[in-house]
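Input.
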Amino acid sequence: MKTSLILFDDSNRIDLLPLTFTRPVADIRLGILNIREKWEMMLGMPSSSLTESYLAGKFPLRTAEENLLVNAAVLPDAALVERIRTMQPGEALVQDECILAQCVKEEELADAENRKKPATLIAWDNPLRKLSRPWDVFRMNAEEILIDFKRLTENKISQDLDPSNRISGKHPFFIEEGADIRASVFNTDEGPVYIGKNAKVMEGCLIRGPFALGEGASLKMGAKIYGGTTVGPYCKAGGELNNVVMFGNANKAHEGFLGNAVIGEWCNIGADSNNSNLKNTYEEVKMWSYRQERFVSTGLQFAGLIMGDHSKCGINTMFNTGTVVGVNCNIYGAGFQRNFIPSFSWGGASGFQLYDLDKAMKVAENVMIRRGTIFDNEDAAIFNHLHGMAKDRIRH
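Output.
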């Protein structure tokens, strides 16, 4: 019998905004891989997504006679995967009233989509790793690099490291085919270092694990990278990064500090821009909650910047501790920026206006074509939807 793997967004999706404005939960990068890649690797099958209707054109649902629905915010482990493999139609795994996975026949899929209670509920009492808030991405990233590193490198042979480099530490170092690493220093005392296919580390970089550099990504000369950092596929990174996750196709190529931060796709951080990640009072940091429409405590002393896809900032931009930036923002000007900047904001500390939709789409088209990617009709539909949502949120 043909089986389809479907990674579904539950009501928790709104708590992960702005990262989920432009993608299903499954496509959030955490560790070396995104959540979709983790599940596909563990279950050995491709997946599709059950997500918001405005995202379905770009991320279509694919069904089969029998469908394994897995909560996209849940991170896989061996025990959970093994239990999901044995699920029968009508069964669902639950923990604290949250559905983790269920198995449904194709003709019953509509019931699952409408969140009707499955026939047989099975409690899952094992420890669970699950994304609940955007700041969980950087908070959990170091641990996930270690887990993904083992998955990706088991029974594989690393490429040789060029002798111009220096390496020390107890954790492993792995280099995929085609990577170019020159005259840099690596310390793996606190975690492994993973260098992806065709990635580049330019001269003079100082890197501490756990660290992951994605396929085709590059570190600029003299970059200083602290542990718990992922520079995703085709990103460019420079300056100083500490516990930062860059999803992919984003640039932070110049001097400046980012710490305890998540940067979405197609973002650009201007030269000498910085974020604060610690309050002068050493209090817990608050960040914007899209569900509650107010600032909420993160429970963290260190929390920097969350930036949605396609947002950009000019040179010397200063982001305050615990700043949340929506999608498609163009931020510039002197002074500390506001701690919450809604999607499609154009301006800075002195005020914002609504980013013109046609201009935003033209910029996205120009940016994406430089990386060999087409801004297509599905992308335009997402922009249209989100721009309509943003109109009433911009504060002047």
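The CA atoms of residues 79 and 126 lie 8 Å apart.
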